[in-house]
Amino acid sequence: MDFKKAKLGILGGGAMGEAIIRGILKARVFSPQQLTVSDISAEKLKGLKATHKIKTCSDNKKLVSDSSIIIIAVKPQVLPAVIKECTAASDKTRLFISIAAGVRTDTLCELLSGRGRIIRAMPNTAARVLESATALCSGPGATDADLNAAQKIFNALGKTVLVDEKLMDAVTGLSGSGPAYVFLFLEALIDAGVKVGLTRAVASALASQTIFGAAKLVTETLESATKLKEQVTSPGGTTISGLHVLEKGGFKGLVMDAVEAATQRSKELGK
């Protein structure tokens, strides 16, 4: 696919849609002139146009008609109605990439009446800073070239993995919802720092860099989280005392339950 000639349309200018817009433009995968976004909110479209210098559209059918690649970035609950508006303008020349949680590719194919080629993606909000974790899977009609195109788009937003579609709900529960779990943990660390005497500014700087640095250690050293944790945990030291409290409170079990609950909700949304 020739990205210089491609036209990208984004159905939905909400938080995730705008995160993708920011990342794509920052990475220069597409120019603002190649990008169009549609949304039900005229105020939202006005803000997106002013901020990103992109084209906007209130007509979903026209957006699809004018685009060669369409990213579906609307909530699963409203997706059927939105796709229904677009079906007449779709055909096999168009690639649809859906980021709707829980919505299977065969459901999308049915909604499109078999028109269009389909890829399913699950990025996360870190696309805003080009650090998204995104899983991709092929759907009906999609070719290897389509999957490569989707990888090129989402690799520009962070890191991608390829999975079987049956695992996409698990991806949603882990990395799709995962940033919120991390933000909650970060908030707790900051509050804890304030409780033990640090200013909020100092606690925030230390806690956020600590999480960033720890994640970077895992990705760059390729050592397991377990091994890295052991390297920090000296016999009879401060870290083991803190870990003991977390283990007594069932910290790991709660995180596992959270991912499982989000995975189940993703399955429910897809029904």
Order of helices and strands: EHEHEHEHEHEEHEHHHHHH
Query: Rg to the nearest angstrom?
Result: 21 Å
Largest sheet, described in full?
A: 8 strands, mixed
Number of helices: 12
Class of secondary structure makeup: alpha/beta
C-alpha termini separation: 33 Å
Shape: elongated
The CATH homologous superfamily name of the largest domain equals NAD(P)-binding Rossmann-like Domain
Mean pLDDT, as a whole number? 93
CATH topology of the largest domain: the name is: Rossmann fold
DSSP strand count: 8
CATH class of the largest domain, please? Alpha Beta
- Spatial ordering of strands, largest sheet: 3-2-1-4-5-6-7-8
Q: What are the low-pLDDT stretches, counting only 5+ consecutive residues below 50? A: none
- How much strand content do the residues show? 5-15%
In the CATH hierarchy, the architecture of the largest domain is 3-Layer(aba) Sandwich
Helix content: 40-55%
Q: How many separate domains?
A: 2
What can you tell me about this protein's structure?
- Helices cover 53% and strands 14% of the residues.
- The mean pLDDT is 93.
- Strand 2, helix 2 and strand 3 form a beta-alpha-beta unit.
- The chain folds into 2 domains: 8-168, NAD(P)-binding Rossmann-like Domain (Rossmann fold); 178-269, ProC C-terminal domain-like (ProC C-terminal domain-like fold), CATH 1.10.3730.10.
- The protein is an alpha/beta fold and 271 residues long.
